[in-house]
Prior knowledge:
Largest sheet: 9 strands, mixed
Low-confidence stretches: none
CATH architecture of the largest domain: Alpha-Beta Barrel
CATH class of the largest domain: Alpha Beta
Radius of gyration: 21 Å
Oligomer: single chain
Number of domains: 2
Distance between the termini: 21 Å
Bound molecules: 2-OXO-4-methylpentanoic acid
Mean pLDDT: 96
Amino acid sequence: MMDIAFRKAGSLKAHPDESSLGFGTIFTDYMFNMDYSPDKGWHNPRIEPYGPIEMEPSTMVLHYGQAIFEGLKAYRTDSGGIQLFRPKDNIARLNRSGHRLCMPALDEGFILEALIELLKIEKDWVPGAPGTSLYIRPTIIATDPYIGLRSSNTYRFFIILSPVGAYYPEGFNPVKIWVTSQYVRAVRGGVGEAKTAGNYAASLYASDLAHKEGYTQVMWLDGVELKYVEEVGSMNIFFVIGDELITPMLNGSILSGVTRDSVLQMAQSWGMKVSERKIAIDEVYAAQEKGELKEVFGSGTAAVISPVGHIKFDGREITIGDGGVGPVSARLFKELMDIQYGRAEDRFGWTLPVA
Length: 355
Ligand code: COI
């Protein structure tokens, strides 16, 4: 294992008011950095003050978007400890995304060690107010100063930390979703299942249209037939139809969400009928007409469990249930948070104490 160097900050930042944390604007005092070159491999791991990355304007990531990232969280438990939620799954996915984006693999065990070391230094930044956490953003960017098109030879890996509250201004209140039948997020054979920067850039235009219509997020249909539901904005999506919990099956263009997988495991453990399968938007509307569409909700690290109150597709808006929070969403939200915050027994082995 490589030694991790440490460079101390000259001064530390004031901490924010925990009761009014939003998402993604505040960053802690330190970050982890490491570089890759073909001759040295991944090298120079170091924890140093959070700050600008100097790069030439020709740096490849700025031109061709060869960039991947992850999102995971550290939680403050009631007893004052700190724990991570399924960190190995996020680090494994980072390597899968990296493989798709032609990047060199990281040593997953070492990255977990580096993250824990960073968290030990920054432990006072993990907020304790209800619903807050420390969001962790590991990222890899292509750093060759070169504007021909090929994969980069050099890379920077970094981890930054951000104390956060709810991702949506709605909190756990239902969001409104707008289905686009004109734009797609991912195509067959594309990079949909990789957590790469360009997927998020590609989503912005339809997102803006949704906002203009008064909706929070876009629901994406498949890129081949524009028929089957894939995912929503920054979340995976679930439907409760009758007594069946359904989420689109992973098909290469859907992000393999860690929270998605956790939802599937929790619902299965309760004895619910759980299906990963294709689900057409027409099936959702047909279920609504028959009175069988009970609940819709999204899942994600940032979004946690986010109930959907309204969906608009093809000019028709439907209200899910009474537009409020359904029992399956509420139970999942509570059980997931109870595990993440160490209030319930971790019967799935998902949490990792770090301090
Ligand atoms: C996450 O949920 O962690 C994500 O990466 C989604 C991002 C758009 C905030």
